[in-house]
Amino acid sequence: MGRHRHSPPAPLAESDPADDRRFVTALARGLTVLRCFSPADRWLAHQELARRTGLPQATVSRLTFTLTSLGYLRHRPASGEYALSPAVLSLGFSVLSNFEVGRIARPFMETLAEHTQAAVSLGVRHDTSVVYVAHCRSTARLILGLDVGTRLPFAETAMGRAIWCAASPGLRATVGRRLQAQDPGLWPAREAGLHRAEVECARRGYAVSASEWESEIAAIGVGLDLGDGREPLALTVGGPAARLQGALLHEDFGPALVTTGREIVAAIQAAGWED
Q1: Is the dihedral angle over the CA atoms 90, 213, 121, 139 positive or is it negative?
Q2: pLDDT (0 to 100) of residue 55
Q3: Are 219 and 227 in contact (CB under 8 A)?
Q4: Other CB atoms within 10 Å distance of the CB of residue 221
Q5: Whole-number Å distance between alpha carbons of 50 and 72
């Protein structure tokens, strides 16, 4: 019995997409708020967002609250200003490539990548995932094929575990609740892995994920606390599990990772980078 194929509906000629019943006005307005920020803008006041979007201030209030709750905006309650969060970097490679922290960190990451002959990545948290904001490959042929913009799970990866270990108790509680709500059945195993990472970080200074995210991949990660109240970032070294193990990993690559992490934090602080 043959399959019946239905042709897609013909596009409406010379019609406004907003008139189509499939058009989600609230989503469009939310994206309009995000597009208000030009490369020259860091923080914008609520009134300026209303002016640029042409939307009522009450509507802008609801949109900014939602976008802040989802992690796409950051809010300064004292001044009523908003800024784009690193989470929006996952929406566009061009933004990711120009992320200032990644630019500052890159020379240190390149040196570490050549030393380890592995992949070195810098990432941020977005909800229950982590997103690469910078990535360096060594000249070795057998390395990870991931790149800027890659999104990975939080609990099973060295990057997520490193952020967890450097996070405040409040942030850990928030992320833990979201992970549990996301998949209650997986939460016990994920919670156990995060607790193991805490022990590893306390003992070695970095977190480990060996064949837990992907069976053939191992990675170590260190959290980067910039000391200004924002969420920590994470720096990782990853590659084939068959190579990243034993003394090479824990006596050479691990200490090199911790040292590089400290150098990156110092460089960012010395650069006077402000949000």
Answers
A1: negative
A2: 92
A3: no
A4: 31
A5: 17
